[in-house]
Amino acid sequence: xxxxxxxxxxxxxxxxxxxxxxxxxxxxxxxxxxxxxxxxxxxxxxxxxxxxxxxxxxxxxxxxxxxxxxxxxxxxxxxxxxxxxxxxxxxxxxxxxxxxxxxxxxxxxxxxxxxxxxxxxxxxxxxxxxxxxxxxxxxxxxxxxxxxxxxxxxxxxxxxxxxxxxxxxxxxxxxx
Length: 176
Prior knowledge:
1 helix, eight-stranded antiparallel barrel, mainly beta, about 10% helix
């Protein structure tokens, strides 16, 4: 567990250092985030998996109201146990493309909605059905708040075979 928190702290320090040396008004952004993902089913006896997630998001802000983001999202659980005591080792990745609609509340503070599509894959699953080792393409959506150099948001990656994947993430934004 300490290794995960050390990696998260190192990521935050690198982002802060980079944000102080780049162009503050550039429309290009690189966001690095750490979050908590949740993968579960409607069935209370089914798997319910939670772990840290790592995200990289490359964006272009056309205006104060509209942006385009491409993201990579990685999750991994080496040998955790679900709330039902079953082994739940797995890994997963998502690649997404989305539009971010923003509502400025102040010069450097926005509420936003995200809509797009993601290609998601769970692999090396020991608890989930083998069908989930395939890639699936789903609409993705989210909402959050964003400052000039930070953001917090909820994102849903949809449903595949009754498995819902979503995350709550927060990170730092670097303009370049």
